[in-house]
Amino acid sequence: MKKNLLLLLLALPPVLAGLGGCVQQAVNNGMPLQTGSDRALQSAKIHTELAAEYYYRGQLDVAIEEVNEALKAQSNYALAYNVLGLINMALNENSKALENFERAVRLAPRNSEIRNNYGWFLCQRFSQRMDQAIEHFMTAAKDPLYATPEMSYANAGICETKRRNYTEARLLFQKALSLQSNYSPAIIGLIDMDFQRGNLAEAKSKLAQFSQNNPPTAESLLMAIKIEQAMGNQLAVDSYIFQLQKHFPESKEMALIREGTVK
User: Fold this and answer.
1) At 251, phi and psi to the nearest 5?
2) Which of 29, 83, 91, 206 has CA 20 to 30 A from 22's CA?
């Protein structure tokens, strides 16, 4: 999935309120003193943020080290398990990733970013659990406090497309676009539906229109490669592969090209 299909919530969990009349907060020179638990939480947060940054860069070994430091600071930090799940997914350690995401959800059942990531993992790696993946996406998308519900709607659309539920997929992509009219994963998702149904000319036309109004993304370039390949336009295929290599050399889309698994 794309960095935009994989977004992490790395903010602190909601602070419990209502205890001000029961507990007097320690102060030093007018400033609250950090307790040991405060410091542990802050350490876990910082190391998790670092782990996420290294994950995005593809430095998975360093990312794991940072997650381990986060969990040393606070062993039940849900967001650390969330990032660890993404790392293990990238390493194709599916059993470990499943355990990580399940633990993250148990620790923070109302965290919609975790729900979204867990749903994406199930969609990509456990096709027999697709219904559960869609449930996680819908839980996240319907959360009024979730900042990017269009992402979960688009992810759900991608998963419905995978199992050829095109009517449901179209509704989900359209819902994502109703929230953010130029949300590229949903637009590419609709184009991919045309491609999968054999409407190559229509898919190519829609992608050309998208490309006129938007900078290229790894997803759009891969879609172009697939369309031109299906149409037998090898020169165009080579041109798009060159662009993908130039602009997104570390993307999962480029990895698919190198592996020769694009269909």
Assistant:
1) -75, 155
2) 29
pLDDT tens, N- to C-terminus, the chain (263 residues): 434 434 443 333 332 233 233 333 343 444 454 566 789 999 999 999 999 999 988 899 999 999 999 999 999 999 999 999 999 999 999 999 999 999 999 999 999 999 999 999 999 999 899 999 999 999 999 999 999 999 999 999 999 999 999 999 999 999 999 999 999 999 999 999 999 999 999 999 999 999 999 999 999 999 999 999 999 999 999 999 999 999 999 888 998 898 887 76
Q: 140 with 8: CB under 8 angstroms?
A: no
> How many of the other CB atoms lie within 10 Å of CB of 5?
19
Exposure of 183 by Cβ count < 10 A (0-12 exposed, 13-18 middle, 19+ buried)? Answer: buried
- Answer yes or no: are the C-beta atoms of 240 and 228 closer than 8 Å: yes
Question: Which H/E stretch holds residue 250?
Answer: none
Q: Where are the alpha helices (DSSP H) in 58-129?
A: 60-73, 78-90, 94-107, 112-125
Q: Which tokens is 166 given?
A: 């095109």
pTM of structure: 0.81
Dihedral sign for Cα 14, 18, 22, 23, please: positive
Q: Which residues of 43-82 are buried (b: 16+ CB within 10 A; e: fewer)?
A: bbbebbbbbbebbeeeebeebbebbebbbebbeebbbbbb
CA torsion 76-109-148-89 (nearest 10°) is 60
